[in-house]
């Protein structure tokens, strides 16, 4: 079960990710703190997306010389959260490139027919 201190979205992410990672055979108890961070960041991303959808990507400020359009700070925060999220996804082998580097316990490997041809 997810840690009690996770937000509702974090708990949903925990449920989905534990099933996925356990199915890949790479989840251990030692991973729990990193998984908590991954879930926290995912929850942040969802919240920031809602904020941007509600407030917009930019806002207008009136100055002495007219109006100035500024970026909503949530946009930069979302970009930062996305970078951190990707970093954790890579650590858990949840990107296509990362899966080639993570040892996944999926049972016996099937013989690759190309190995017979080229091997």
Beta-strand portion reads: 5-15%
Q: Report the mean per-residue pLDDT as an integer.
A: 88
Regions with little confidence, pLDDT below 50 for 5+ residues:
none
Q: Using only CA atoms, what is the Rg?
A: 21 Å
- The first-to-last residue Cα distance is 46 Å
Structural category? mainly alpha
Total count of strands: 2
Structure description:
- The protein has one domain (8-103).
- The mean pLDDT is 88.
- It starts with 7 loop residues before the first helix and ends with a helix.
- The protein is mainly α and 119 residues long.
- It has helices at 8-24, 32-55, 73-91, 96-99, 113-118, and strands at 58-63, 66-71.
- The protein has five helices and two strands.
- A hairpin with a 2-residue loop joins β1 and β2.
- Strands 1-2 form a two-stranded antiparallel ribbon.
